[in-house]
Amino acid sequence: MNNRNILVKKGSILGIIGNIFLFIIKIFVGIISGSKSMIADSLNSAGDIFASFMTWIGNKISSVPNDDDHNFGHGKAEYIFSMLISISMMIVAIKLFYDSLMSIIVNNKLIFSWSLIIICIITIITKLILYLYTKKIYRKTDNLLIKSNMIDHRNDMVITFFTTVAILLTRLDIYFVDGIVGIGISIWILITGIKIYKESYDVLMDISIDNKSKNQILKIIKDNKEIKRIGNFYSIPIGYQYIVVITIFVNGNLKTKNSHDIADRIEEEVKKEIPKIDKLIVHVEPYIDEK
After folding, report:
1. What does pTM read for this prediction?
2. Would you say 31 and 43 are in contact if contact means Cβ atoms under 8 Å apart?
3. Candidates 3.20.19.10, 3.40.640.10, 1.20.1510.10, 3.90.470.20; correct CATH number of 3-204?
4. pLDDT tens digits, residue range 192-218?
């Protein structure tokens, strides 16, 4: 298991522990106080445990090296499980939208309680720590599973913050804010879930490498004066990295060893400059000057 997978594993385990802690205190206070909203919020924490657990499983599978049955490894598992997390985010968003809308229609009134405020503050602090930690890991790994968890922690932090504001406003007999804010946040979460779903879908459907990286590869190749022309360029994702297949044309009078040395030099330079390239397969063809 490489350093990238180790960091993601740590992030997912911390997420599981943190969300289990929040679930326990929320369900306990919810049952003791009889607050249905807090009990419902505890179920949201249970969903967060699921998301962190999916991250742990997805990372574990994606870190398995290539074998006879999976020649390019298991990297796409990262995107399969990210898709599952994004679907759970969209389900939560739809449920939150419905609950918020019904709250406005039937004029539900939150019951003020200092115990609910304390739980909200604990939740915000816990989620802030989880968010900052996973954000740090995401910057180092560019892992979509961790990105999904990071966004989930951020969403929960924002939701709980506005829930706290709504509870405090009940002391002034202002009750409609909770429903309006809930609708706004649900739409925001839904859009975020759709974006993560699309990112996962693109990789699973073998989207080509981005134009910036493609142009960077082509520039490295063009800077080699021995290469007369560049032919076909193909790329396929194998998780967060890519396999690129390219055809180059060199002087047809070169010895086979010399032409392969050129190909090896290009492969080494490209992989050094662009970490997202796992393999660069260079096909060498003889160049014939038609003139």
Report:
1. 0.75
2. no
3. 1.20.1510.10
4. 889 889 988 998 898 999 999 999 999
